[in-house]
Amino acid sequence: MPERLIKQFNKLQKTEPSMEWAENTRNFLVAKVTQDTLGKESSWAFTLRLNSMAWVKRIAPSPTKVVSFLIIIGLIGGTNMVAQAEYIPKRPLYTVKRTFEKIELVMALTPESETKVNLKHATKRKDEAVKIAQKEDIAPEEKTENINTVVKSMEQNISAANNTLQIASESDKNSESTAKLAKEINKNVSANIKDLDKVKEISSEAVGEVVDEALDELEKAEDTSIKVLIDQVQQTNEEGQTDSSEVVSKEEVKEILNVKIQRTDEKLQKIGEKVKVVGPEQQIGGPIADKSDVNQVKENSEAAQVILEEVKVLVNDNMLSEALEKFQETSKITKESEKTISKIEKVANEVIKETASTSTDKGGVKGIIELEGEDSSEVIDLKIEDILNYAPLGGEIIQSATQTPEVGTSSLNYLYSTKAKDLLKEFEE
Amino acid sequence: MKRPIENSDKFLVIKSCQGDSEAFGLLFDRYSKKIYRFVYYKVATKELAEDFTSQCFLKAWEQISTGVKVANFQAWMYKIARNQVIDYYRTREREELPLIYRDEDIESELKVDPDKNLDSQNLEKILLELKSDIREIVVLKFIEGLSIKEISRIVDKSSANVRVIIHRALKELNKHIK
Fold this sequence. Notes:
heterodimer, A: Four Helix Bundle (Hemerythrin (Met), subunit A), 80% helix, B: 178 residues, mainly alpha, 9 helices, transmembrane (chain A), membrane (chain A)
């Protein structure tokens, strides 16, 4: 519309009735209203309608506010959904994810719900640790740092859950809710221990230390939960309840203990294998471990195995409390042995590295042979065989040697496989 | 700008119904000029427009006093005014119909030259020569500044129809001012 026309229309807005008419009409209408409503009582409904109008308007949010609120909620929800997929602690979305988790924890009002949230978060941290450990496009240092961060956080979650269970069991030892809580913690911890062991296997030594600490905390929580469950079973037996309403059965507790026994059994077997590997009877270029240390580990693992057999018998005889006590003994010995063997492994790794560098300087296999002061094809064959047998898993070394080594992997197994690969290659040449 | 609830039309209507004469007085102050202008561009005489406006408010009061619920006071008032004018002329003989209801060609009677001397009086004349249904929409849109939706509610036409009428009116007005 032309601007000139707009201006003219605006001028037409000044078309007004006369002041006199306006005043007279107004007075007439006001008088009319007064006259018509004179003596007319206003109904309570009408008064209520009038008063409620203002209040309703004040209380009821405007559509703009409602829409804005919904948009904000949508954005927060969307961000949270995106953030949930993030698992690298150094990234900004991870901070968002953790903030939501903190809010979730604050919102948990009862100890039971708080424990459930802690367990849920612990599982998330474990999943993150597994993902980071499997991630290939990340620097080893960064990987170690990230795994340590999430595993420490997991340790805190489990510690909090364990504390809650301890407090609950002290205040009401035989309540159903405590038993349920213990069962839940046990289930969660059991699964997490298994996965955390995998993380430890595929990660560097620096990660191993932090994972060990977390595993200690997980096992503590596992022991507490088993103790509570055993108490619950014993209480049920004393009361003579045999109905299906019981929270946990004797068979279930036995199964839990058997899982724990099996896990320790596997650990002892691994220790045994490692002892064979680093023992003074099989070495390259001289002894790589203190004989007394190795013997000590050997003796301890054998003693732990004996106690473990006793535990198995006690479990079978339904002496669950005694079995748990005995198990703790073997668990302690196993842990000590693991620590010692880990130290020996570390030393062995260094020796292998040194040997590898020396052998390269001196010309591969020949270098090693020369170090031994011998030089014949027969000896070379023997040494190659020796090197191959030197691997912790015997024949598997050839298979692992053909695989591409992972960055950051530093287990003894890997070192031997890499070494064997190099030596085989050189020998073939 | 949105008025506070205590000052809203709805609230004043309810208060008037309760006997608050000053509330109705405020409604009169708020809308009397608008209704007057709307009627004025329908009947084209000042006296008649004033008379219709008074009657319009009186009718509004009669209905309010019975407790009628008014959703949109402004649209309701325009509608009362419009119906009053239509009823008035319907009851009279056709010869007395005002200019707005005459269908004869107006261009021959238009003596002003808008291009040279376009002032508010000229525009008023041009407006009064427009067909009644077009004119009332032009007044509501360009003088009273109502939205298409509000106008469609008052004149009982669809929004699309109102838009078309406005478009035609502007075309017609442009013809006069070029």
